[in-house]
Amino acid sequence: MRIERVDLLPFSIPLARPLRTARGTIRERSGWIVRLRAEEGTVGLGEAAAHPHAAPAAAEREAGALAPLGASLSGACLDRFEDLVADLRTLPRWIAAGVDCALWDLRARAAGRSLAATLGGRRARIPVNAVLDASDAEGCVEQGAAVARAGFTHAKRKIGSDLAETVREVRALAAAVPHLAVRLDANGVWSNAQAHAACARLSSENVEWIEQPLAPGDLTAMARLRREAPVPLAADESVRSKDDVDALAGEGAADAIVVKLVQVGGVSEGCQALGAAARAGLPAAVTSGVDTTVGLAAALAVASAAPGTLAACGLATGSMLAGDPCRTRLAEGPSMAVPDGPGLGVELDPEAWTRFRGHA
């Protein structure tokens, strides 16, 4: 089977409401749907969207790598699948993620199997966490109570430099919904001193872990913080490959691993990173970069195939977008069904794509 055509379909979708993070406010998600069409008419889809916190100028420069994809992939034989995937390592990771996913989707559809089954997936449903994105402590508690009533046992809260406000939120959540495990995501913005102070003050029975308290790169500092902190630590931005997972485990720098396909470079690398976490005995979660249904379906398939302990995953995020380029959006809840195919198990909606069409 040969790839006959490569389409890059740009999209720009506003968030249903702005998402505040330690690195700024996310208001929209923009990127490309990569569509590979084989000679027989089989189609593979992938999502190429820069990390939500990527510097706009850098992402714009990297997007130049999209232009030659048509020439490099048109005519390529899917029998060379491993070589095609290996060639993606020279691309920016977020672009590689979209092409890699489209190749996997095409391969699975051609075989008449779901992507999850193609990857050796063993889970039909994936446990997921809710997202608490209210603007203040009162709203956060209301959301926490609502998601707990809906059956969620885990929730994630983006936090910033206002430690006093975060402490108030954590304590209020503990009082109102004590059985809701809360993950606090600092997105790597704290200094070493701030991180030590924050971890000491945020130690609470309802805090499951603090995610990326320090900027990625300094494993020694992260390992020291983990030894001294009274609360577990998870690595997110520090995870860009299986080698990063090996390094984190070797230094004793994390209690849990968070894998984002846009950050590691796609389905292939995501599975490798999860394998490294399992070998190290570290629980892992697969999370979204506020993806469309295409990206979420890929992440669910990868989570289905995770070989080790799978923590609740951050994939109940489709509703954060004000729209989607696919015909059907994935149902959210305390657990999410893994699409059963063929391939990703999702199809583009031409009308919706036209509505959210961005600018290449």
The total strand number stands at 12
Radius of gyration: 20 Å
How much of the residues is beta strand, in percent?
A: 15-25%
The CATH architecture category of the largest domain equals Alpha-Beta Barrel
CATH superfamily of the largest domain: Enolase-like C-terminal domain
Helix share, percent: 25-40%
Q: Main beta sheet: strand number and arrangement?
A: 7 strands, parallel
Structural class: alpha/beta
Taken from the alpha-carbon principal axes, the silhouette is globular
- By CATH reckoning, the class of the largest domain would read Alpha Beta
Which whole number gives the mean pLDDT?
94
Predict the CATH topology of the largest domain: TIM Barrel
Which stretches are low in confidence, meaning pLDDT under 50 for 5 or more residues running? Answer: none
Q: Strand order across the biggest sheet?
A: 5-6-7-8-9-10-11
- Please write the string of helix (H) and strand (E) elements: EEEHHHHHEEHEHEHEHEHEHHEHEH
Q: How many structurally independent domains?
A: 2
Q: Figure out the total of helices.
A: 14
Distance between the termini: 29 Å
Structure description:
- By secondary structure, the chain is of the alpha/beta class.
- It has 2 domains: 3-112 and 350-355, Enolase-like, domain 1; 118-337, Alpha-Beta Barrel (TIM Barrel).
- The protein contains 14 helices and 12 strands.
- The mean pLDDT is 94.
